[in-house]
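Intended use. Records like the one below are meant for learning the mapping from a protein sequence to its folded structure. Do not use them to infer anything beyond what is encoded.
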Amino acid sequence: MMLDSAGIYTGDEDASDQDLFVVERKTFKSLCSGLVQQCGCLSNPSWTIASFIKKGHVARVQFVCPHCKQSRVWASSRVLAGHYLANQKLVHAFTCAGMLPRQYMNFALFAGMGVVKQKYISSVYLNQLYQQVVTDVAEESMKAAVERVKESPHHAKSGERIVHFSTHRIVGISTLSRQQHRVAQTREVACTKIVLPQVIARGLNITEVAHDYQATIKLYVRQLGMVNSYDTWHGTKNVAKQLRHICAGTVRTRDRMWFTELSDKARCTKVHLYWCMRNCGGNPVRLRAMIMNISKHFQGDHQSCSSESPCQQPGYVPKRKPLTMPAAISAYEAALRKTLIYKNADSCHLCRDTYWVESFNHQLLTYLPKRIHFHTKTFEMRMNLAVMDWNENCQRMATSHHEYTDVRRPDHHSTYNVLVKKTYRFVNNIWSMYVLRNITSQQILQDDEDDDEMVLPDDAALYDGDYVDSEDDDYVCSEDGGDDEEEDN
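Structure written out for the chain above:
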């Protein structure tokens, strides 16, 4: 039997004829085979549609034989744990994609493909064990990352001095809500006291911790007998601001409060500090000496400068104004001693950075935008999704390299790596475990209940389990259906 195509859309049909629904391949095959079967009256198959109902994204259709009035019911999705499988999978899909419930609802509503409301989404998250499944798969991801660390050359040589320097993967996380810890300034310290023992319990020998400038964390890390390191960017980000009062000012205070010889030193001092941290050889005393040598370098004394520096080459011409005024030299050296790098040389001499942690924080915005306040359980679930995404894709190979120049900084040239396409195996892992656990829970429930208490509708195509009819599938989006995003974290 040949079927005609649906034709060309001319825009004159009713809007309800443009509704979409989701169909499984297996249920579509059963529909095709059922339409060509004869009914009880043995007449030629000529089924007509008696009713069409949308259950979220699923279509529930009743077919009637015009001769004997026998009816058959078909649904475009099978059933898992009392809910249509397609509806649950779309909740899983938009969650793993990082979409907010309201974004999903608007997309599905505008497309005319049916919508499930927030109550149904929360039921999938909580009653159907979805959040617990995400947590368990994330734990497996972090355990696999720990094994990668143990197999890396860094672990064999130095007992993984810095965990993320080995594989750049997440091996432990901790989250605290505002209800659990009210003070934002010390919340990072509290999380550190949770995550460090957590990582150590997984068999990693942590000997050094790099973090932003937090004096309390520094004290805690040293109490554990570990080496404390400050992030280089946080140590130098305010250098230009600290030098501003001696590099610029009014005409009246020129050469008294500020000096023209220092007017071009604020930005380049930051570069010199980076170079000192990178080349001090891990010696805090040498780091301080190299920082004070910056002043001598601008005075034209290059005896202590590196042999690889341009100032040691013949014909060197300085690009900056030379320092000659004693007052300017004294003010500049005093400013160098007040820098965070000089005062905390014992925490900056290893030149550590938190680049990969900040990169993860940037990717985290896909799942946890800062403008939204999530419920604690939802926050933890989305955090775990970000961890799995990061651990799977953080060290992708580069297919090519491109150089670009920022128009705002024409003297800054950077190389951009074009990476291979991301993979999302964790999405399939979550769905497989979610289906398996719901099938298992259904079987346990069936053994505990009497057979006469189980009601099977005519269209119950079971997904490896028994069906209990639920009205939650009837939920559609309404104007008062808001996202569950009000509680703070």
